[in-house]
Design a protein that fits this description.
Mean pLDDT: 93
Low-confidence stretches: none
Radius of gyration: 22 Å
Length: 399
């Protein structure tokens, strides 16, 4: 046990401090079973360590972070360990990479029932484990929160020391001129935007190592570990998943997938391609958008109108041919909107319908349309805009 406390203290003491993540303030930390879910690379471990650093003295041994990468837990399990931690005066047990532990849900549930004064916070992947449709009891008693990569707002705050706040979509659409007057005297967003698109979504850029190599390693782990383990995909099919991801990235602006052609190219069936697309989306490697009306189709057969890599850092990381500025900007807009809004693809390139009511066109220069008089324009290569034209970087302030 002492070695685990020593490791925890070392990690907390050597944590590279980042700006306070906004998710930290939305969590009810008094709840007894909390899940922090998110894809690899967004900083789940650092997030837990930051909470421990802000609320506990590591020398008092009240809070402890343990990783299920440690072989100790595969041999001894977690229940007995939790009992020893409680006996030593432990209050909060943080379990990182929880999904790697066999029968991890059963073990966490047993700890919850056995030690009623212990609070448990576990971190796991965004890929949900394969099951037969039955909900586990752990899921019913857990409050789950999702940690995303840095928003453009968080990136600016990290780089400049500013404390810029968030805005709702309606505020950005209808009151962006006032918002710009509040932001621009403090910072010049266009000086940071290209760097964010290239490497600002993942915290790797804060570390003293090659960003692209770290990102590629993380992407491979998303497929090799998160998807294969949680979805029970056989190892021999791994090359198909990787090739599919590359083909989607290489499609460029012409990203409406031909499922039959993709199935032929990776050597599998259409149904399997559809499953793989869902797996890649859960891993936060892609985002799929549909046309209006597709939501009423069967989920197993409906075809996406467009497949984007989940964020622009991935586009630059894969370095597939066909990268265009228009594609980068559409990828950015879809990424910032998908969390809390319904995003559908319009009939024209760059056009999106949001929440069944608002049309937004991604473009460098506004092309006003007679048939869509209430159209908004998300313009790139501009710092300011007026009326229904909005600088696209401002949508990065949604979270």
């Amino acid at each position: 046990m002492d070695r685990f406390f020593q490791t925890h203290a070392y990690l907390v003491d050597h944590l590279r401090t980042t700006k306070h993540r906004s998710l930290m303030d939305t969590i009810d930390w008094s709840y007894r079973m909390i899940c922090i879910r998110g894809p690899r690379g967004v900083g789940r471990t650092s997030f837990l360590l930051q909470y421990a650093k802000e609320h506990f003295d590591s020398q008092l041994h009240q809070c402890l972070l343990v990783s299920m990468n440690n072989f100790y837990f595969h041999g001894r399990g977690l229940v007995e360990f939790a009992g020893e931690f409680v006996a030593r005066g432990g209050h909060v047990l943080m379990v990182d990479q929880a999904f790697k532990l066999p029968n991890w849900k059963d073990q966490l549930l047993e700890i919850y029932k056995k030690y009623p004064y212990l609070r448990i916070v576990y971190a796991t992947t965004s890929v949900h484990p394969y099951n037969d449709g039955e909900e586990h009891e752990l899921d019913r008693i857990t409050r789950s929160y999702v940690l995303h990569g840095f928003s453009f707002r968080e990136y600016i705050n990290q780089q400049t020391g500013c404390e810029l706040g968030t805005y709702t979509l309606q505020e950005i659409l209808n009151d962006h001129e006032r918002i710009l007057k509040a932001i621009l005297p403090k910072v010049k967003p266009t000086e940071h935007f290209q760097n964010y698109l290239h490497h600002g979504y993942y915290p790797y850029y804060l570390e003293n190592r090659n960003f692209t190599e770290a990102l590629l390693k993380s992407m491979n782990s998303m497929i090799e570990v998160d998807i294969l383990m949680n979805k029970q995909v056989e190892l021999k099919y791994l090359p198909r998943l990787k090739k599919l991801l590359y083909l989607l990235a290489a499609a460029g602006e012409d990203n409406t997938p031909n499922v039959s052609q993709l199935a032929e190219e990776i050597g599998t069936s259409r149904a399997t391609v559809m499953n793989y697309l869902e797996y890649l989306q859960e891993a936060r490697l892609i985002n799929m958008v549909y046309r209006d009306g597709a939501a009423h189709q069967d989920a197993a057969t409906r075809k996406p109108a467009g497949v984007f890599l989940h964020n622009t850092n991935l586009v630059y990381g894969i370095q597939a041919p066909g990268i265009t500025e228009q594609m980068i900007m559409e990828t950015f807009l879809v990424n910032v909107l998908w969390r809390h809004h319904k995003v559908l693809r319009g009939r024209r390139r760059g056009l999106y319908r949001i929440d069944d009511s608002t049309d937004i066109c991604v473009c460098e220069k506004a092309r006003h349309s007679k048939d869509l008089p209430d159209l908004y324009y998300a313009r790139y290569n501009t710092e300011v805009a007026w009326g229904r034209e909005i600088p696209i970087w401002l949508f990065g302030f949604l979270y």
